[in-house]
Design brief:
Helix content: 40-55%
CATH class of the largest domain: Alpha Beta
Number of helices: 11
Largest sheet: 7 strands, parallel
Number of strands: 13
Strand order of the largest sheet: 3-2-1-4-5-6-11
Bound molecules: uridine-5'-diphosphate-4-deoxy-4-fluoro-alpha-D-galactose
Structural class: alpha/beta
Number of domains: 2
CATH architecture of the largest domain: 3-Layer(aba) Sandwich
Strand content: 15-25%
CATH topology of the largest domain: Rossmann fold
Order of helices and strands: EHEHEHEHHEHEEHEEEHEEHEHH
Distance between the termini: 37 Å
Radius of gyration: 19 Å
């Protein structure tokens, strides 16, 4: 057994896929999650894939004492992957204080405990949202960080700054911040996947729910962008590919292979697809037609963004490997498996 890794938000979408990859690579995983936006049943899904039930503590990362107890109970945690955060852009506009509180107090607690508990390694979930609408594409890590379009986006920008300042002051601490582009799909087993709470905000869960008949039609937000077909462009990356980058990042930190205290990497495929293109790809991949209507732009959306993943490719030796078609097939298999569970 390799080191003990604490995964906050490990019952969530990206968290659960990362727990599977960590376990598959021999790590002992301790999940903390307050289950505010996830289900305890995810643990069964993880166990059915890996054959190992991860340790689980229902803890809110804003509660420092409770987190401290976790470090004491599972003595010897060497690294933390911090996913736990609120992530709905629209909700963050309505409830900014909730977002600043959840996303920043939890991070402050983690950073304090890293020093106090001799767990100096952090992998942090960041987002391509920090770039806003980049001036040049594909976007590299040294692109300007633009004023955030939402309180949620601002929490990711502020979080990166807090981490930078903390490591500057205490150089025994190390962090890799991973800027995710648009994660999609589910584990190939269909035992874990994305579990949107209520009406999905994100494109792919809305597409799969429409395909299966839960939603009447997909609303395509805008066809008047300055893109070849007028719909907005994103870099859709398979969630399992994304999860694997976390294992590599943990290993890099544990083996002191990082080149600076805070390293930042884009996690994307390097290719942008428009909403209409990915919809067509979904229909081709699954043979299922998705009803759609074109409506106005969604407030706060940017026109186009896709990653330059060269730095992650070179430094982490990581590459997004899964085709769009494959990832969409897994998203569909997952939606169908959810239907059988109801
Ligand atoms: N879209 C639709 N119809 C829908 C849902 C989405 O047309 O019902 C479009 C959006 O307008 C956008 C694209 O599909 O052009 C992707 O939208 P998502 O909501 O899936 O993803 P976003 O790119 O808007 O959001 C992602 C992350 C956020 C992050 C944001 C920053 O989910 O966490 O990037 O840009 F903040």
């Amino acid at each position: 057994m390799k080191s003990k890794i604490l995964v906050t938000g490990g019952a969530g979408y990206i968290g659960s896929h990362t727990v599977v990859e960590l376990q598959n690579n021999g790590y002992e995983v301790i999940i903390v999650d307050n289950l505010s936006n996830s289900s305890i049943n995810v643990l069964d899904g993880i166990t059915s894939i890996t054959g190992i039930k991860p340790a689980f503590e229902k803890v809110d990362c804003c509660d420092k004492k409770a987190l401290e107890n976790v470090f004491e109970k599972y003595h010897g945690i060497k690294a933390i992957i911090h996913f736990a955060a609120s992530k709905a852009v629209g909700e963050s506009v309505e409830k900014p204080l909730l977002y600043y509180k959840n996303n920043l107090i939890s991070l402050l607690n983690i950073l304090e405990l890293m020093g106090e508990q001799d767990a100096p390694n952090l992998v942090f979930s960041s987002s391509c949202t920090v770039y806003g609408q980049p001036d040049t594409l594909p976007v590299t890590e040294d692109a300007e960080v633009k004023p955030a379009a939402s309180p949620y986006g601002n929490t990711k920008q502020i979080a990166e700054e807090i981490i930078r300042d903390t490591i500057h002051a205490n150089n025994s601490l190390k962090c890799i911040a991973l800027r995710y582009f648009n994660p999609v799909g589910a584990h190939p087993s269909a035992a874990i996947g994305e579990l949107p709470n209520g009406i999905p905000n994100n494109l792919i869960p809305f597409v799969t729910q429409t395909a299966i008949g839960i939603r009447e039609r997909l609303r395509v937000f805008g066809n008047d962008y300055n893109t070849p077909d007028g719909s907005a462009i994103r870099d859709y990356i398979y969630v399992v590919d994304l999860a694997k980058a976390h294992v590599i990042s943990v290993e890099r930190l544990l083996n002191n292979k990082n080149k600076k205290g805070l390293e930042i990497f884009n996690l994307g495929t390097g290719t942008g697809l428009s909403v209409l293109e990915i919809l067509k790809e979904f229909e081709t991949a699954t043979g299922v037609e998705v009803k759609k209507e074109i409506v106005g732009r969604r407030e706060g959306d940017i026109e186009k963004v896709w990653a330059d993943p060269a730095l992650a490719n070179k430094e982490l030796g990581w590459k997004a490997e899964t085709s769009t078609r494959e990832m969409l097939k897994t998203a569909w298999a997952w939606e169908k498996s959810l239907a059988t569970k109801k």
